[in-house]
């Protein structure tokens, strides 16, 4: 009798794990079956943290347009327009998400804390954080030259508020995941990387903000950027190991989900960008004196080390990009519009920014031309993804 009971329990457990795995593969943002809302368009219940992957991609494109090496007349204007679109998009999502929570307050807790594997929305809270970081970067890039010292101080204050919030969120969110969930490794998706993503873009953001800050303000921001990038990168290394094991021991994600594999490109790409950009800004970011010497003495050496380290890591990001591109291309006809399509943009924007830093460091015309090609491809990709998703929303068939 006990043996039959145990066998039945084992069968139930196996069935539940299979169900969880299947549900995980068809998460809200990437369900293979078309979904039609009540009125053909998205309703308020459809506005989740997943949608902020769109503002991540739009904001990152604006940063790339500003930093691409070969500029032409109107490029900065295009970047400003993309930035404005990003701001409007972000504001709309914030309002709609707030209305969703107002209509059903219980969803506030569920959206950031849920013990069920089948519910992956808490992972995407990181997309909101990254979107905020990119807005701050674009404020510094496009806004400060056109305004006054008040925006310099505003960016400094907002940077520290942002860092405090994302650090707290990273601690609490992973604590929740560790304590309340029992994951199967074969159900892992790249979304597991998203909670640490806001720290991975803190380094590049710090490198941009310090350019306009007085030294007294720039030095703490620079040091914070280095430490935040270190934490983000170390957590990513742990996740990379699990992701590689998952790919070796289980099937790759289903074709409609495969664009999400580009998410693995981002952590390395943004770390390369952070290392080299912070190294370039070391003369302004290092304390004065630094180890008993003027900061300029150490800044040059530090930049050389940063360039070597960035070059060392760059090909790793490209490897993930190439691997994912091949896997996506193998079943390209099976792709259907869903929110994972934003993964074509944001992580690869990080790879473009990393390549821009390498071209700048080596003063290589060939690499700089490559950056221009990557920027153009990124812009065209953003137009295509935006149009495809808007058309899918209009028809009520967003996967």
Walk me through the structure:
The protein has 14 helices and no strands. The radius of gyration is 22 Å and the shape is globular. It has helices at 2-25, 52-67, 75-103, 106-112, 125-143, 149-180, 197-200, 202-209, 215-249, 265-280, 282-285, 295-330, 346-362, 365-395. The chain is an all-alpha fold and 399 residues long. α5 runs antiparallel to α6 (149-180), α8 runs parallel beside α10 (265-280) and α12 (295-330) crosses α13 (346-362).
Number of helices in the DSSP assignment: 14
Largest sheet: none
Q: Multimeric state of these chains?
A: single chain
Helix- and strand-based class? mainly alpha
Question: Termini, distance in Å?
Answer: 46 Å
H and E string:
HHHHHHHHHHHHHH
Helix content: 55-70%
Strand tally: 0
Mean pLDDT, all residues: 84
Overall geometric form: globular
What low-confidence regions span 5 or more consecutive residues with pLDDT below 50?
1-41
Beta-strand percent range: under 5%
Q: Mind telling me the C-alpha Rg?
A: 22 Å
Write out key terms for the chains shown.
single chain, 70% helix, mainly alpha, 399 residues, disordered N terminus
């Amino acid at each position: 009798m006990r043996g039959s009971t145990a066998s039945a329990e084992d069968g139930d457990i196996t069935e539940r794990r299979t169900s969880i795995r299947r549900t995980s593969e068809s998460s809200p943002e990437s369900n293979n079956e078309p979904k039609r809302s009540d009125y053909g368009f998205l309703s308020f219940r459809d506005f989740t943290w997943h949608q902020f992957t769109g503002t991540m991609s739009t904001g990152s494109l604006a940063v790339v347009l500003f930093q691409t090496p070969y500029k032409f007349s109107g490029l900065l204007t295009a970047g400003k327009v993309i930035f404005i679109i990003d701001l409007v998009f972000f504001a709309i999502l914030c309002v709609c998400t707030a209305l969703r929570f107002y209509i059903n307050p219980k969803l506030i807790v569920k959206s950031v804390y849920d013990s069920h594997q089948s519910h992956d929305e808490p992972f995407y809270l990181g997309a909101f954080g990254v979107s905020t970081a990119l807005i701050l970067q674009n404020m510094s890039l496009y806004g400060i030259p056109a305004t006054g010292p008040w925006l310099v101080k505003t960016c400094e204050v907002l940077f520290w508020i942002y860092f405090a919030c994302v650090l707290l969120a990273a601690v609490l969110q992973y604590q929740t995941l560790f304590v309340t969930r029992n994951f199967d490794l074969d159900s892992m998706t790249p979304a597991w990387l998203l909670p640490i993503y806001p720290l991975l873009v803190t380094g590049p953001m710090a490198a941009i903000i310090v350019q306009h800050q007085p030294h007294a303000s720039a030095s703490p921001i620079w040091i914070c950027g280095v430490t935040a990038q270190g934490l983000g990168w170390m957590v990513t290394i742990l996740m990379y190991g699990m992701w590689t094991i998952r790919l070796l021991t289980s099937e790759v994600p289903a074709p409609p989900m495969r664009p999400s594999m580009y998410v693995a490109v981002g952590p390395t790409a943004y770390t390369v960008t952070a290392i080299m950009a912070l190294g370039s800004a070391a003369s302004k970011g290092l304390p004065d004196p630094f180890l008993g010497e003027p900061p300029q003495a150490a800044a040059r050496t530090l930049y050389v080390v940063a360039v070597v380290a960035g070059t060392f890591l760059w090909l790793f990001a490209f490897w993930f990009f190439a691997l994912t591109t091949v896997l996506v291309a193998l079943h390209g006809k099976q792709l259907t519009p869903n929110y994972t399509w934003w993964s074509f943009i944001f992580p690869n924007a990080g790879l473009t920014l990393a390549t821009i830093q390498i071209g700048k460091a080596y003063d290589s015309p060939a690499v700089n031309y490559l950056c221009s090609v990557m920027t153009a491809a990124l812009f065209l990709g953003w137009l295509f993804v935006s149009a495809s998703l808007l058309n899918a929303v209009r028809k009520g068939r967003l996967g």
